[in-house]
Design a protein that fits this description.
This protein is an alpha/beta fold. The protein is built from twelve helices and 20 strands. Helix content is 32%, strand content 21%. The structure holds guanosine-5'-diphosphate, 6-O-phosphoryl inosine monophosphate (IMO) and magnesium ion.
């Protein structure tokens, strides 16, 4: 048996989709445990690109059971759109399951997300406007709707009457926006119910059976550690727990059953949306990195902010998640940079910090301490073994492992499966 958690070690978009795809056909079950359609995971297989938002990237393999766990917030409309796209592309997705406990994104959530952002003005977070924050708010406030509620129309109707009073009050009085109509929401969601019904399950026995039968399970993370509601750069975070701990609560798998935690890191750093980013490059070098790395969001198309690899952030991610194997992606993007820098820690008000501090106005103004490395100035995309990489490239990678306190077991030099150099296999 093995239960592997895969987390993003930075601010998301580390290349998790590619790594999940690499592992998915060797496991029996893939579970998504948090986030929603704010995620965008790109998988390239045989030159064909697939983009996933809600559905686990393991869906490409019919023998792998793919579960949307109860820690996820599911927008039924977005879910069905993604399902249609997959099915029209010849992927039947019969191996898909949604936890009846997963909460739903309701039609008022994206509207409240956008209005809330507008009201924040200059302090806005730069959310994806997918309603993720408002959906988690309602979950915690105990006025959320769960996927299983789609099977209970009378309950849905009664509860919606109450919840909509609260929502419409905020929409009209606070934001001066139009109210939502109860009948319209009911008709829309009960319309989705029929199509979603076959996928809804109590995942508890399914997961327990898999654990007891010693199946291989992969917990697929979305977002990244620095976007975690507790550990990240609050309030510039998402509203879920994209950490190893969150993977356990979001799936119902106990920490004692976890075999390994894999962290995916980009060979440099990117971030979408606002908030502190100590190693950010806002100069022509940054523009070069963004262009070479094609750093534009999978979900919103926004230009990603880019910067040097931050070992203070990544070391924190390794330590707080118990990451025992690192995957370093997009190494090829650095092929043509004369000099590279890695941030090893920060100076803040005369004090040295080896990890990001909680106070984000201090984090915004830290002075990164850099180590400089000579670039390798040669293409790595065609390398197929770690030993084929230029010496300067290996030195850069090994220093990252050393600074973060975990070994870099896999190196990625391109988006496709074949562009993957395995030093030590991620799964036994
Ligand atoms: P995720 O959200 O962590 O799954 O990452 P995204 O899919 O949002 O962003 C990563 C992007 O980088 C995708 O377009 C991938 O196809 C691409 N990618 C992944 N690994 C590599 C790599 O090693 N080199 C290059 N050049 N692109 C990569
Ligand atoms: P994947 O899974 C990168 C960011 C948003 C914003 C903040 C809050 O592809 O790595 P939200 O809509 O979640 O309330 O927005 O979080 N964000 C991501 N950034 N990759 C993601 O997912 C993200 N999901 C959310 O840009 O800054
Ligand atoms: Mg992404």
């Amino acid at each position: 048996m093995s239960v592997t958690i895969l987390v993003g070690g930075q601010w998301g978009d580390e290349g998790k989709g590619k790594v999940i795809d690499l592992l998915a056909d060797t496991v029996d079950m893939v579970i998504r445990s948090q986030g929603g359609n704010n995620a965008g995971h790109t998988v390239v297989t045989g030159g064909k690109e697939h983009r996933f938002h809600l559905i686990p990237s393991g869906i490409l393999y019919p023998q792998t059971t793919c579960i949307i766990g109860h820690g996820v917030v599911v927008d039924p409309k977005a879910f069905l759109q993604e399902l249609d796209e997959l099915q029209n592309g010849g992927i039947p997705a019969e191996n898909l399951v949604i936890s009846e406990r997963a909460h739903m994104v309701m039609p008022y959530h994206p509207v409240l997300d956008q209005l809330g952002e507008e009201m924040r003005g200059d302090d806005r977070l730069g959310t994806t406007w997918r309603g993720i924050g408002p959906a988690y708010e309602d979950k915690v406030r105990r006025i959320g709707f769960r996927i299983g509620d789609l099977q209970k129309p009378a309950f849905l109707e009664k509860k919606l009457r109450f919840v909509l009073r609260l929502k419409n009050e905020s929409l009209t009085r606070l934001y001066g926006a139009d109210p939502f109509n109860e009948r319209e929401i009911l008709d829309e969601y009960l319309g989705y119910a029929e199509r979603i019904d076959p996928y809804i399950r109590d995942i508890y026995p399914l997961i327990q059976d898999a654990l007891n039968a010693n199946r291989r399970i992969l917990l697929e993370g979305a977002q990244g550690v620095m976007l975690d509601i507790d550990l990240g750069t609050y309030p510039y975070v998402t509203s879920s727990s994209p950490t190893a701990g969150g993977a356990c609560t979001g799936s119902g798998i106990p920490p004692s059953r976890i075999t390994r935690t894999v962290g995916v890191f980009k060979a440099y750093t990117t971030r979408v949306g606002y908030g502190p980013f100590p190693t950010e490059l806002t100069d022509p070098l940054g523009d070069q990195l963004r262009e070479v790395g094609a750093e534009y969001g999978t979900t919103t198309g926004r230009a990603r902010r880019v910067g040097w690899f931050d070992a203070a952030v990544s070391r924190y991610a390794v330590a707080t998640n118990g990451i025992d194997a690192m995957v370093l992606t997009k190494v090829d993007v650095l092929d043509e940079f004369h000099t590279l820098k890695i941030c090893t820690g920060y100076m803040s008000k005369g004090e040295y910090w080896d990890h990001p501090m909680a106070n984000i106005s201090h984090l915004k103004h830290v002075e990164p301490i850099y180590e400089e490395f000579p670039g390798w100035m040669s293409p790595t995309r065609e390398c197929r073994r770690y030993e084929d990489l230029p010496q300067a490239c290996r030195a850069y990678i090994e220093r990252i492992g050393e600074l973060c306190g975990a070994s870099v077991n896999v190196v990625s030099v391109g988006p496709d499966r074949e562009h993957t150099l395995v030093r030590t296999p991620l799964l036994d």
